[in-house]
């Protein structure tokens, strides 16, 4: 069981890896007394399951693809079986291979983790046919909740709020008003035949409804030749809040409070928290009870999640039900103290629920950040790949839990989900959990792949997020022109420049420390010039402490004059470490050194964002003005891949004329297709890629004339 | 302070007694002032406009502040033809600035050609100045850095200028292997002049503003009728990627000089000096867990040798030499527990890491530099063999491959070798094998030491037989692992990749006192 106050680090993460559960070793625990073997698929989830199984005395078998044979979950499990090559269709989704693996290892149960086969009813059926236990709900529940339309009907019948609406012919404006009043304002009116948000009008009162009716029915008739109108409840400022349920095979069910998952990009969750800042006890209870009603209505057993959309008036509406363990479940574990994997295995074994509803607490606050291998500066995150040349989780901090399926040296490939880890922090209050998250993100060392820590850190420190004023449109609302990293204020700019100067001086001083050579006279003053972007800053550094020491670590205390402002910087650094803790004007900060070049270029991660600065001596800075400006490559005639992936289609050949904005080719990576378009109207000079080819980030695809 | 005031006051008092003293002091000041501006402000401005710094600015940036001690500031050219004897054609110091100074506190001799004086052309006096500091550098035991920016010979001086070149060449050769010599090409360097950089240990270039060629585009056009630009013929890109003449190129003067300072820190001052040791913050016993998974399961799949090198060396700091030339071999400097080492590694990412003509020559020259200057050599082996084909055979792969073999065999510095995967055929022998006096030879569990790959081997051993696949599997079982080499003692141990750094650091401590002497000879006869 997890100690709610000490989020221990025992989760899993990343890709699918099926875990089979095998023979119990000890028999003092109730679950073990039944020989059970669980299989799972999904790296991080796999690790999590393996850890819980081990605690319960259950042996585990991990399945993996050939490229993952040295993955962490494979090493952790008691046994491991390779089920095929890297593409998921040939391995983690290859049911035949997985069934063979179950038979050959004699596994008695399968835990599907999340993703892959976790919500596949055919897989559950095949397991049942072989008498292998599936750690998850019964097939009929997976099926019932798997269909979006059917699940809504079932939910409605079970008394769960669904988004009210009317779809049909509306004859008069007054009829429209009546429908709108029945639904309750605000409502959304549009032609049924119009796809998406096209021609959508929002009405907040009767007058606006009449107007909306006029426009929409005209449009319906003229544009689509179809009179039907759709009038539906408009969810303003929607928030995504979900309820964790736990149901056993004896008809009992519990709700384990909510998780707020409103911060999303492209419908994928980025930051989650439990509980939600938005719910009051009454709403929470109402949502929980409806979730339990739904679980009972489909005779659900195991852990499941009922997702709701919640509007600004705290009206909530059923979205869908996930019949598996979810990525964000750890935050529920943190605030309730329950081990969901353990509960799932108990339930699968047929044990009744251990807890009563009144036993389920909300202890403190938990935040989860999904750390992805992706470039947050491109559409809030385009996949990136690479080898984790350095990787260090912030586990030195208390109340931090990291579920990852990777380690230093792991390859982030184009084959799977680009998630690096789920970073969970816990605190007695939300403020405490958020401060811890800030710390954890600053202490998280990831090198070799581009990651989204800059975005995560900006989100959790944004005033709107801190005040709880969030919706599912948070990112596009807050960053309408895309994410551009941390925006430096006067103070933080000064601090950054001062830290960079200190790092430069540290490296300079050390580079004179040769064994058996006379050590040059200690310097007490440096006149530097630090370049950040196009701006240049004069930086004067003086030693404020008595001395500095360089051996083994660089301990210093410097007084830095930047742009007519004074910054006191002190710290003790190991220059071989990527983490450089320092105190700037009395505030503790964690600086990360990403690179340090002989040319004075220093890249540091500061406040989550990486900044490139150039530190020069005063002389070099003066002479720098004579250096010729390098003309950057004209990128409008060159199309490069924005991310690593596979070329799906190439729409042009050499000699074709393309118009600006015309699609040139499509790149797919990690289940995402990206259409590449021409930046100008021109003739195609040459094509450097073929469909089916793998390309790296920045690879030349097509050249225009 | 007091002394300088006295020195100043004294001549003032003397002026009533001796007119000539006064005029000497004035002349000294005047000459010094003139020397400091070289060819004059107009030419300095022109130099800046070209994106280049002046000879003195370069020296100042290269050396520690206030450490430069200048020699021969008063030397002038001695040419009296073509009006050169006129005062306006005399420049104190002539077209080169020479002297010594410090880089991070360590002594270095420097000459910096001054393009503002007669286009940096080489006069007899210019050559004499360079020779003077080179002679002293060899005597003292300190490296020589040349900052080249010269239009060529001083044509007005004729054969005297040619003699000057030869004097420098001779010194380049006699100093070779005694003190490190580095050339940084920061402008034109054409004709006979190119041979001085070519004789030095390392040649670096500045992108877009430096050229090296025997004959310029005009002569090329008239002789071979080829149309070629200066940049294509002898620019930084050509020499770092195509010809292999230069070892690395930098963005501009400042970038080049700052990088040179960084590079200098790796070098010992002379062949009498041990490999330098610098303060190190990176624990010598650090494990590198990422290395355990770096070699892919399929032996045909590539990986980046640089990932291994960066993981193992101090602070991921690796100064690569010739990064854009013969990329199938990686060479460069790094540190282990603070001590400079030379790294040689096959690069599986490029041409499967095979050895060919260019990579053999690149590797050989680097190994010989390390050996000459007491720098331990660490070799990472993943080599499928020498590259086959007529191009290679006609080009003399036998002769050139022998250079690398020769260099490794001849080297007496500490030699540590890690076989990460393939070590096939003759290339296994070449890559610092135990048989060539490797001091510590390790194999990772993924190592395969064999005459050739399983497929080829089976085709020969079982020619015409069926069941080739079965035979291949048997061969793999038998030879595609480190055991055949380990049971014979050809590798000293099979080690976990993550422990490699720890092992190397420990070995280097032990081998620091290594003494090995080759038989007396005038010099060896490396197959050139």
From TrEMBL, chain A:
UniProt keyword annotation of Mitochondrion present: yes
Domain annotation Lipoyl-binding: ranges: 626-705
Residues annotated as domain ATP-grasp: 152-349
Localization per Swiss-Prot or TrEMBL: Mitochondrion matrix
EC number: 6.4.1.3
Domain Biotin carboxylation residues, every copy: 33-480
Pfam families documented for this protein: Biotin_carb_C, Biotin_carb_N, Biotin_lipoyl, CPSase_L_D2, PCC_BT
Catalytic activity: propanoyl-CoA + hydrogencarbonate + ATP = (S)-methylmalonyl-CoA + ADP + phosphate + H(+); butanoyl-CoA + hydrogencarbonate + ATP = (2S)-ethylmalonyl-CoA + ADP + phosphate + H(+)
Database matches in CDD domains: biotinyl_domain
Cofactor: biotin
SMART domains the UniProt entry points to: Biotin_carb_C
Main location: mitochondrion
Annotated pathway: Metabolic intermediate metabolism; propanoyl-CoA degradation; succinyl-CoA from propanoyl-CoA: step 1/3
GO cellular component, one term: mitochondrial matrix
UniProt subunit comment: The holoenzyme is a dodecamer composed of 6 PCCA/alpha subunits and 6 PCCB/beta subunits. Interacts (via the biotin carboxylation domain) with SIRT4. Interacts with SIRT3 and SIRT5.
Name of the protein: Propionyl-CoA carboxylase alpha chain, mitochondrial
Automatic annotation (TrEMBL), chain B:
Annotated pathway: Metabolic intermediate metabolism; propanoyl-CoA degradation; succinyl-CoA from propanoyl-CoA: step 1/3
PROSITE patterns: COA_CT_CTER (PS50989), COA_CT_NTER (PS50980)
Top-level lineage group: Eukaryota
Ranges for domain CoA carboxyltransferase N-terminal: 21-279
Gene Ontology MF terms: propionyl-CoA carboxylase activity
Boundaries of every CoA carboxyltransferase C-terminal domain copy: 283-522
Cellular component GO terms, alphabetical: mitochondrion
InterPro entries with a match to the protein in the record: AccD/PCCB, AcCoA_carboxyl_beta, ClpP/crotonase-like_dom_sf, COA_CT_C, COA_CT_N
This enzyme's EC code(s): 6.4.1.3
Enzyme class per UniProt: ligase
Chemical reaction(s) catalysed: propanoyl-CoA + hydrogencarbonate + ATP = (S)-methylmalonyl-CoA + ADP + phosphate + H(+); butanoyl-CoA + hydrogencarbonate + ATP = (2S)-ethylmalonyl-CoA + ADP + phosphate + H(+)
GO terms, biological process: fatty acid catabolic process
Family: Belongs to the AccD/PCCB family.
Assembly and interaction partners: The holoenzyme is a dodecamer composed of 6 PCCA/alpha subunits and 6 PCCB/beta subunits.
Name this polypeptide is given: Propionyl-CoA carboxylase beta chain, mitochondrial
Gene: PCCB
């Amino acid at each position: 069981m997890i100690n709610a106050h000490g989020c221990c680090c025992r989760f899993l993460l990343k890709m699918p890896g099926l875990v089979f559960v095998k023979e119990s070793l000890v028999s003092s625990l109730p679950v073990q007394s039944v020989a059970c073997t669980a299989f799972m698929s999904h790296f991080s989830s796999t690790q999590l399951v393996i850890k819980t199984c081990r605690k319960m005395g259950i042996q585990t078998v991990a399945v993996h693809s050939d490229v993952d044979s040295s993955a962490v979950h494979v090493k952790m499990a008691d046994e491991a079986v390779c089920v095929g090559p890297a593409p998921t269709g040939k391995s983690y989704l290859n049911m035949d291979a997985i069934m063979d693996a179950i038979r050959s290892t004699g596994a008695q149960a399968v835990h599907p983790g999340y993703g892959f086969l976790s919500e596949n009813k055919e897989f559950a059926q095949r397991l049942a046919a072989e008498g292998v236990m599936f750690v998850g709900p019964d097939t009929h529940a997976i099926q019932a909740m798997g269909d979006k339309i059917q699940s809504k009907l079932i939910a409605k019948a079970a008394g769960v709020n669904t988004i009210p609406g009317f779809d049909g012919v509306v004859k008069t404006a007054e009829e429209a008003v009546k429908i709108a009043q029945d639904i309750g304002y605000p409502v959304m009116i549009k032609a049924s035949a119009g796809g998406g948000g096209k021609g959508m009008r929002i009405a907040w009162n009767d007058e606006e409804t009449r107007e909306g009716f006029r426009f929409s029915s005209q449009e319906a008739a003229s544009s689509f030749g179809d009179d039907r109108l759709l009038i539906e409840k408009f969810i303003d400022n929607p928030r995504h809040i979900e309820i964790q349920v736990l149901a056993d095979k004896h008809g009992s069910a519990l709700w384990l409070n909510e998780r707020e998952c409103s911060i999303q990009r492209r419908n994928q969750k980025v930051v989650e928290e439990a509980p939600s800042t938005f719910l009051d006890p009454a709403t929470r209870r109402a949502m929980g009870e409806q979730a339990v009603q739904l679980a009972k209505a489909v005779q659900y057993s195991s852990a499941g999640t009922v997702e709701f959309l919640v509007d600004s008036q705290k009206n909530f509406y059923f979205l869908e039900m996930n019949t598996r363990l979810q990525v964000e479940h750890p935050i529920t574990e943190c605030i309730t103290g329950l081990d969901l994997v353990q509960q799932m295995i108990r339930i699968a074994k047929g044990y009744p629920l251990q807890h009563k509803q009144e036993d389920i607490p909300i202890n403190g606050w938990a935040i989860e950040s999904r750390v992805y291998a992706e470039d947050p500066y491109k559409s809030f995150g385009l996949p990136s790949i690479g080898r984790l040349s350095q990787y260090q989780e912030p586990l030195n901090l208390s109340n931090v839990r990291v579920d990852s399926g990777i380690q230093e040296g792991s390859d982030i490939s184009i084959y799977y989900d680009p998630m690096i880890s789920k970073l969970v922090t816990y605190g007695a209050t939300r403020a405490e959990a958020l401060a811890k998250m800030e710390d954890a993100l600053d202490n998280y060392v990831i090198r070799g792949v581009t990651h989204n820590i800059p975005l995560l850190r900006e989100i959790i420190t944004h005033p709107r997020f801190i005040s709880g004023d969030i919706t599912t449109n948070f990112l596009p609302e807050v960053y309408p022109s895309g994410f551009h990293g941390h925006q430096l204020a006067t103070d933080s700019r000064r601090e950054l420049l001062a830290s960079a100067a200190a790092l430069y001086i540290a490296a300079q001083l050390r580079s004179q420390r040769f064994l058996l050579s006379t050590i040059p006279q200690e310097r007490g003053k440096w006149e530097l010039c630090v370049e950040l972007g196009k701006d240049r800053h004069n930086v004067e550094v003086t030693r404020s402490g008595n001395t500095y020491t360089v051996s083994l670590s660089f301990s210093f205390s410097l007084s830095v004059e930047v742009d007519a402002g004074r910054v006191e910087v002190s710290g003790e650094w190991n220059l071989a470490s990527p983490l450089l803790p320092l105190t700037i004007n009395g505030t503790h900060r964690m600086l990360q050194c990403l690179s340090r070049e002989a040319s004075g270029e220093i890249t540091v991660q500061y406040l989550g964002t990486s900044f490139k600065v150039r530190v020069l001596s005063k002389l070099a800075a003066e002479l720098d003005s004579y250096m010729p400006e390098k003309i950057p490559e004209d990128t409008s005639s060159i199309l490069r891949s924005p991310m690593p992936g596979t070329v799906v289609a190439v729409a042009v050949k050499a000699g074709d004329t393309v118009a600006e904005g015309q699609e040139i080719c499509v790149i797919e990576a990690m289940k995402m297709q990206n259409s590449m378009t021409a930046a100008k109207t021109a003739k195609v000079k040459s094509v450097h890629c073929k469909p089916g080819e793998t390309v790296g980030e920045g690879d030349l695809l097509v050249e225009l004339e | 302070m007091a002394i300088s005031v006295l020195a100043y006051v004294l001549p003032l008092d003397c002026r009533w007694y001796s007119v000539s003293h006064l005029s000497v002091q004035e002349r000294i000041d005047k000459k010094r002032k003139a020397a400091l501006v070289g060819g004059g402000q107009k030419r300095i401005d022109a130099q800046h406009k070209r994106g280049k710094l002046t000879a003195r600015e370069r020296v100042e940036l290269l050396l520690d502040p206030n450490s430069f001690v200048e020699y021969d500031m008063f030397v002038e050219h001695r040419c009296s033809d073509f009006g050169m004897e006129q005062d306006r054609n005399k420049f104190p110091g002539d077209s080169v600035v020479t002297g010594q100074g410090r880089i991070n506190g360590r002594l270095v001799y420097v000459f910096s050609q001054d393009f503002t004086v007669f286009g940096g052309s080489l006069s007899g006096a210019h050559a004499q100045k360079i020779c003077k500091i080179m002679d002293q550098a060899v005597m003292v035991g300190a490296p020589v850095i040349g900052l080249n920016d010269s239009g060529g010979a001083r044509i007005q001086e004729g054969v005297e200028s040619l003699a000057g070149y030869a004097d420098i060449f001779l010194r380049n050769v006699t100093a070779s292997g005694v003190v490190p010599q580095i050339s940084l090409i920061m402008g034109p360097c054409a004709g006979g002049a190119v041979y001085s950089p070519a004789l030095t240990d390392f040649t670096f270039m500045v992108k877009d503003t430096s050229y090296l060629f025997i004959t310029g585009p005009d002569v090329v056009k008239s002789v071979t009728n080829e149309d070629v630009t200066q940049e294509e013929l002898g620019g930084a890109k050509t020499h770092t990627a195509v010809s292999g003449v230069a070892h690395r190129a930098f963005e501009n003067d400042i970038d080049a000089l700052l990088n040179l300072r960084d590079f200098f820190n790796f070098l010992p001052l002379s062949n009498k000096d041990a490999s330098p040791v610098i303060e190190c913050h990176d624990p010598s016993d650090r494990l590198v867990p990422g290395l355990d998974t770096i070699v892919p399961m399929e032996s045909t799949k590539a990986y980046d040798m640089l990932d291994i090198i960066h993981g193992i060396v101090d602070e991921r700091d690796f100064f690569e030499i010739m990064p854009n030339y013969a990329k199938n071999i990686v060479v460069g400097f790094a540190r282990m527990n603070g001590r400079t080492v030379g790294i040689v590694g096959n690069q599986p990412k490029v041409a499967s890491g095979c050895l060919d003509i260019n990579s053999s020559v690149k590797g050989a020259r680097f190994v010989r530099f390390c050996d000459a200057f007491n720098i331990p050599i660490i070799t990472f082996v993943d080599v499928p063999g020498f590259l086959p084909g007529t191009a290679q055979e006609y080009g003399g792969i036998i002769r050139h491959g022998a250079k690398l073999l020769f260099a490794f065999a001849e080297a007496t510095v500490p030699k540590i070798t890690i076989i990460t995967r393939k070590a096939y055929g003759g290339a296994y022998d070449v890559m610092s094998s135990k048989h060539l006096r490797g001091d510590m030879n390790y194999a990772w569990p993924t190592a395969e030491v064999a005459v050739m790959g399983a497929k080829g081997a089976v085709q020969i051993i079982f020619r015409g037989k069926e069941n080739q696949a079965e035979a291949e599997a048997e061969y793999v079982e038998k030879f595609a692992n480190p055991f055949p080499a380990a049971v014979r003692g050809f590798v000293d141990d099979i080690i976990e990749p993550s422990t490699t750094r720890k092992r190397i650091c420990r070995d280097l401590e032990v081998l620091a006192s290594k003494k090995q002497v080759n038989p007396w000879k005038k010099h060896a006869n490396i197959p050139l």
